Q: What sequence folds into this?
């Protein structure tokens, strides 16, 4: 935990510096008759982020914050496994929406999660995995008229459009 | 009397069939969301906000407010039966609710929580109705410096009362404000902070992208990581006769309920403070004034009544600055405020003159929802306890799906979904190191309002920041904000002088 604390503070400080540079692409000073320039607000806020990071680093050095005293691992084996399986699962889910559209991706993601991570029975898995995209389709595409991307599965939906529209 | 007339009109608006249906669904959903560990009012409102584009803004707001309300009731259910707070707002309820359940009096604790929530909600509704119109009247005179000073106060409250690591809270606030600045500069129209020239950043970062990322994806990861497997459930036997008996017994905690209701409301009004500190403070004070403080923590009924009345009362209180000043009183109301902007309503005192139907319909719905929440809660406690057995491995993937679909519905851009994922993963990793996430969400909502106010104020004063201290209303507010920021620092100095270590409270 202690090492993670300072590494994170360092990374966040780098992010702050990047944001300061990026803000400085616009005028960060006071323009007479126009008020503060467009970069003024984000520049000083990013500077605030940087100062906070330095403060966090000082607290780390003085061992004042709980994570800087903790001997525990930042990500133990459970945490890491969880992050890879669940966080990775969601990442793949979002990536799949580009190809299979939302509905195909939802179906696969739910099967993966409920069956393989949750170890529930196939009947439970399949009923939830099939009902969820159907309800989502009825709510978003039909009721709210917010058309979710279908990816390569678009042709499968054409008969449905014929029914509802 | 004029207020009463408006209130009656409002109640009639709230009683329209669509609104009644939405209130019932909202309250039931809220109870469920509140009861589920890992989901609180703020998660529910953030994830479900995109779903409300289906109905008119007034009904959408009534629905979301009902969720907020219901979640305050629901949090107690898991605090008592599982010993795990269903939401951060119900943390204080575990202190005495859990021991009561372990003694076999889960039914008494649950009923007391419901009755206390109802009392807290009712008192807060009356206070709200009395205070909101005059406050909105006063706020009509507020100029840019005053509004900016109020925003400063909102952030200062987080630093002073949040109880989190100060530099990390500040970091979170600054980060949220910078993210709000991405996109076209509102005053000059120049593109700003367009990272890597990706066009997706040109339209800015919608607050829902950060809110759903943090409260949908990040919070789920956090809950899966921190609960790790088994929880033990204490059952509760609920019969009609038993409930009536418990209601009579719960009246004995009237002291805790009164303290909780009033304290909760006023803490709720403070910008950004919300229901969590409100309920913790109510618990502390009720314990302090009780004749037998040593019984607290072992199953004292006042220890359930005080925080439960306070969190309901505070949730209504938090709506007061949101509706009258356009400054959210809690993280959940920050998201509601962002929703109002999406619906094309200008938050602030003008709402009371320009959108009377919206405002009074909402206020009317507070009263009705409160009755609904009590009835649904008492009638379906066994059902909610049964639902708590729903495995997290089914709930979590559904929340992920809802987050992604809801996020897309809000912005209709895949770029934002990826950004949401990055925010979610980042929030989880930072939260493990005690970085608070709520200030960032509040900041991204307030950022687009705060920046033009600051720039216009400075233009007005030709660049002199003293404008915030010199004006009669913004001056005192700014001073209070500065004191709040310095508050933890004073405590630090005092401890240094006494040479003692901070008390482990």
A:
């Amino acid at each position: 935990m202690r090492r993670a604390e300072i590494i994170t503070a360092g990374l966040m400080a780098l992010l702050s510096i990047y944001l300061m540079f990026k803000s400085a692409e616009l005028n960060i000073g006071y323009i007479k008759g126009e008020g503060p320039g467009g970069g003024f607000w984000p520049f000083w806020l990013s500077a605030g982020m940087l100062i906070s990071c330095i403060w966090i680093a000082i607290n780390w050095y003085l061992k004042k914050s709980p994570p800087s005293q903790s001997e525990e691992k930042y990500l133990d084996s459970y945490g890491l496994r969880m992050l890879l399986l669940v966080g990775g699962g969601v990442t793949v889910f979002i990536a799949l929406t580009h190809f299979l559209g939302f509905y195909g991706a939802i179906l696969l993601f739910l099967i993966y999660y409920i069956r393989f991570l949750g170890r529930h029975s196939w009947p439970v898995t399949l009923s939830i995995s099939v009902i969820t995209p159907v309800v989502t389709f009825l709510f978003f595409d039909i009721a709210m008229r917010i058309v979710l991307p279908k990816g390569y599965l678009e042709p499968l939906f054409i008969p449905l459009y014929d029914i509802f529209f | 009397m004029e207020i009463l007339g408006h209130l009656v009109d409002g109640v009639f608006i709230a009683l329209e069939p669509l609104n009644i249906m939405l209130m019932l669904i909202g309250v039931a959903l809220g109870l469920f969301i509140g009861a589920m560990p890992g989901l609180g009012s703020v998660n529910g409102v953030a994830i479900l906000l995109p779903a409300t584009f289906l109905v008119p803004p007034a009904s959408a707001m009534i629905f979301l407010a009902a969720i907020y309300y219901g979640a305050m009731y629901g949090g107690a259910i898991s605090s008592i039966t599982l010993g795990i707070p269903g939401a951060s707002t119900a943390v204080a309820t575990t202190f005495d609710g859990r021991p009561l359940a372990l003694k076999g009096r889960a039914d008494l604790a649950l009923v007391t929580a419901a009755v206390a929530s109802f009392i807290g909600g009712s008192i807060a509704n009356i206070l709200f109705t009395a205070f909101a119109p005059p406050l909105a009247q006063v706020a009509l005179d507020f100029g840019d410096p005053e509004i900016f000073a109020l925003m400063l106060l909102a952030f200062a409250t987080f630093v002073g009362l949040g109880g989190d690591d100060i530099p990390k809270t500040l970091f979170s606030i600054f980060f949220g404000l910078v993210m709000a600045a991405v996109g076209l500069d509102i005053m000059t129209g120049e593109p700003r902070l367009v990272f890597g020239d990706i066009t997706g950043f040109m339209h800015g970062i919608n607050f829902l992208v950060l809110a759903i990322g943090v409260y949908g994806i990040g919070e789920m990861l956090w809950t899966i990581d921190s609960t790790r497997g088994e929880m033990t459930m204490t059952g509760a036997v609920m019969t009609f006769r038993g409930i009536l008996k418990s209601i009579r017994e719960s009246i004995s905690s009237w002291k805790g309920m009164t303290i909780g209701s009033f304290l909760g409301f006023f803490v709720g009004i403070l910008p950004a403070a919300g229901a969590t500190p409100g309920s913790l403070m109510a618990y502390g004070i009720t314990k302090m004034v009780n004749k037998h403080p040593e019984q607290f923590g072992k199953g004292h009924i006042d220890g359930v009544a005080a925080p439960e009345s306070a969190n309901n009362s505070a949730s209504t209180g938090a709506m007061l600055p949101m509706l009258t000043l356009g400054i959210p009183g809690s993280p959940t109301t920050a998201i509601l405020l962002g929703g109002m902007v999406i619906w094309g309503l200008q938050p602030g005192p003008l709402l009371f003159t320009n959108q009377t139907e919206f405002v009074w319909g909402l206020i009317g719905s507070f009263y009705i929802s409160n009755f609904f929440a009590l009835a649904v809660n008492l009638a379906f406690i066994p059902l909610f306890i049964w639902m708590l057995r729903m495995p997290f491995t089914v709930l979590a993937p559904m929340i992920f799906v809802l987050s992604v679909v809801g996020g897309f519905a809000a912005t209709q851009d895949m770029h934002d979904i990826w950004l949401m994922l990055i925010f979610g993963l980042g929030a989880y990793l930072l939260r493990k190191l005690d970085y608070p996430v709520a200030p960032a969400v509040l900041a991204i909502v307030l950022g687009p309002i705060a920046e033009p106010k600051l720039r216009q104020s400075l233009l007005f004063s030709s660049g002199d920041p003293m404008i915030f201290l010199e004006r009669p209303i913004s001056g005192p507010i700014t001073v209070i904000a500065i004191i709040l920021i310095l508050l933890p620092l004073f405590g630090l100095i005092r401890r240094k002088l006494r040479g003692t270590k901070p008390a482990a409270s």
Summary: The longest helix of chain A spans residues 77-117. The longest strand of chain A covers residues 30-31. The mean pLDDT of chain A is 90. Strands of chain A lie at 30-31, 35-36.
